[in-house]
Amino acid sequence: MSPMARRRLLLVGGLYAAGFLVSAAVGSLGYFHFGSPGRTCASCHEMTGAHAAWSGSVHSTLHCRECHGGSLTLDAHALGAHVNRLVRHFTRAPGEVIRLREEDVLRIQQSCRRCHPDTYAKWASSGHASTYARFFLDPAHNRAERMAPDCLRCHGMFFDGNIEDLVSTPSTSGPWALRDPAKAAEPAIPCTACHQVHSASPDGRLAHLYVRREGAHFPLAELPAVPLTSGGAQVRVSADPRQRLCVQCHAPNAFRLAGTGDDRTPVGVHEGLSCLDCHSGHSGSARASCAACHPADSHCGVDVERMDTSFHSKASAHNIHSVSCGDCHGGVRPARR
Amino acid sequence: MPLPRVNVVVVGAGAGGGVVAKELAEAGLTVVLMERGDWPHYDRHNDDELVSQRSPALGNPYGPDDARYRRVVVNPGGSTSVVLPSEGAYSNNAGCVGGGTVSCGAMAWRYMPQDFRMRSTYGAVEGSTLEDWPLGYDDLEPYYEKAEYEFGVAGDYSENPFGAPRRRPFPMPAFPYNREGRQVVEATRRLGLHPFPIPMLRNSVPYNGRPACIHMRSCVGFACPVDAKSGSQNTVIPRALATGNCELRTGCVVAEIKVDDRGRARAVRYFDPEGRGWEQECDLVVVSASATETARLLLNSKSKLFPNGAGNNHDWVGRNFQGHGYTGAFGISEGEVYEEAGPGATVAICDYNHGNPGLVGGGMLANEFIVLPYSFCDVRPPGEPRWGKAHKDFQRRYYKRIMRLYGPVQEIPNFSARVEVDPAVRDAWGIPVCRLSGGRHPYDQKLGEFMSANAERILKEMGATRTWRGRFGTGLSGGQHQAGTCRMGNDPATSVTNRFGQVHGIDNLFVADASLHVTNGGFNPVLTIMALAYWVSGHIASGWKGGGFR
Amino acid sequence: MGVQPQDPTPPATPGVSRRTAIRMIAVGSAGVAAGVGLTAVVARRDRGAARPRFFFSPREEATLAAFCEQLIPGDDVPGAVEAGVIDFIDLQLVGPHSRFQGLYRAGILSLQNTSLRLHGLPFEDLDGPVQTELVSRVEKGSCPADLWGDPSASAFFGVVLDHTRQGFYGSPRHGGNRGYASYRMMGLAYPNLIGQNRYPAERG
Can you list the domains of chain B with their CATH numbers? Predict the structure, then answer.
């Protein structure tokens, strides 16, 4: 055989071999892409926890790839992570905890939107849809506050990094800046802040609190009921477990005094109500909620929605979360009209 | 490639080094502040009890790490062990920007006037190097005040008749007593004692641009997630950097101070974060690396005139190593005393610091910081089972009913408790490591028993249904309160530096940390370290002639 | 199979003969088939091990689990095993606690041998009270001297007790304290409420 012919044979053979390997890889990824999770993703122990939770959740009719994307992808990060995981699996190296990056969380959020467009729209209209820019680039806030790791506990809980990686504070009095300007438009409290898609709650509830400190979701049943006091007396707090999720961020001060800090637990006439009795979970709106309990007219004959409270006007001195009859009636509860 | 020469190299960015860097940078000197660790990041380990500076079961969150650091401990029998930073015998202090001030409990004590005159107050103690400081409380008072105002201390001494005299009140009001604290106040008053709020390097109100404390359960051993704790990393170091005269080099490990043949410090040799070696030339060097590491650095800096290490011609570097024996008593309360608003320690008494009949010194007593569940496993009366159902029952029955009065006992220094460098063991950079040997002076046990008995008496008065006394061991003391290894004094034959922290015989080498402490008071030492650092810096700045120092 | 094998050779230009095209398709199909088949086989291999071990063998795990369960037994609140203490120790032994690998390997073997000699049964098969008594002997170091070298029985006990506590009371992020069981037992809330004291106490 002439050297030329040998070279040609080697080249052709090499091309066929490469073709075989690429085809094999595609076949392998294709198997994962289309196979059932039990035989593919979840056949590795690293995934059994997530898979078991998913199997017990309302989302068990959806295939992994609906939210996580399939294996047949050209996303270099995804492919790299798969390979890395495989290597760790077969070398029995202790795996780092498999956790979604914030980028993934936001991508999954778009999957939520596909199936739940109404709910998504409600959330998008609420304060909980606020962006990083809204939370971190408000000039008045920047002048009054200091950047701290604790900010990320409720605003940006999925942020990958330390607070110093998110914002820079060129001076103590001036405006802050986002280190990555692209973050400005991203929502800082995405769906998964309060929901776990792989919910395994016995009650089937999807509401779970994402706790940044642990890097894990906590079901409502595991969130503590926090006793509060007001004026030295114990506050009757609603038994609604969802309330426990709200209060984690809408929290009173360390002495657990109702109404301090960010706490909105109702005292006064509304004591004992759950946040969700008045506020819609996703939009946060409390409009038209009065009618759920009140006849149009109150005890004293005034239309409850027109009463001088912060429900009627933000400027009112009578906060709807703490208003009591005595606030307007000189401490005396009026006779029913 | 030589680095541009600077005026000052400060080694260690903790309580002492942060102050020195800021003071000298503000005085117009060019400063390089070397820190072996990094900036602290709360988010990396947040409230993890197993990676806490107080219980580093799985490592220290704010350094040093187990991978690169080692020490050798000489056991009582003479055998040696290699120990890691996460092990108690290592006697660790944090390694990060801010040092121990990032994660400490933040008690901000001034030593009392007698603490500077232990020898003249009490006379000699056999087998001890007990001595007076070469400076008095009055010398340090203005610097204590400066530390309180520049860092931020909350306190109120109006009910503490033993408090050292002060010209100005505390910059912030004291923290309120917690549930346990209120019971301590009532009981101690009934006993004729004088309870008062613990002064804290922690904001009780917004101060210096940082917010008020949010009362974390996990405070001592952890960084503060809102920066309410006043450490050098959020006070003096940012101010030093803001002058434009100070450069902070993190991740840089100093191996040696180069001392020339005429006995002057010329440069420091160090390793950068990539492990490359450098020499930084300078006009003067200030070492603020903690009592163990400062001694180690001096001992590792051998030169023609100081063949046994810088300032060590009389074999005093590394001697008189001390810390605090901690003791007191525990009690079980009839009802719950646990309060979720941390960090827990709110009230103290100084009735037993001095003037105890027949005793040398004493200590402060305070109620304790919240003890987290893993650490609580060791809170047990003598003889209590350590495992099984009894263990579990104790944990669930008494966790919220435990009361504790504890405090640091002023140690009686001894010459044989010491830091050396090990002839064989080296760290990841090839630098000989600390070798710790000796033990506490036996007198400490006597003081400890006295303090424990008093604490128990108070707990009984508080109505504890069951009480027991704490005790500390006879082994080497050190840890976070480590001190004494580069004693200041007027006689070069029996001390390492003069009263300004200037190493005898090397005019441009200074020490500014607890190594200088002749005695360590019956108090947490951090505010004294800061005050001394202001004192040392003041001396340097006033003697600075521009371009040189002598 | 809805996947088209990627063709490594240039697209079939008029210059490529029919035979070459057939050969390419054949190689591609064979590749895909091999990929699918191999993956299916490999994916089937590691089933069953819900919680894989990085360090302990099944025998070691059985012994250690019984031992740890004696240290913190289950009642109305999970004990060491249910709370994930073994998961914790196994994981940490290939991490921060790697320096204790030898101690566990040798200590568990000594414990197994001690149990066999004294009671003729593996430790994990002993009755509860007999286990308790043997753990007590290990704690005190009163075990057959020839069966324990390095570590000594009491040194082994001390380390296992400490690690069991770490796994039971530490954060779940390290593999133990499942569901914060120990915190619940002690009445300690987690996630505890963290409020901001820096705002004036007003409602909005």
Answer: 6-543 (3.50.50.60)
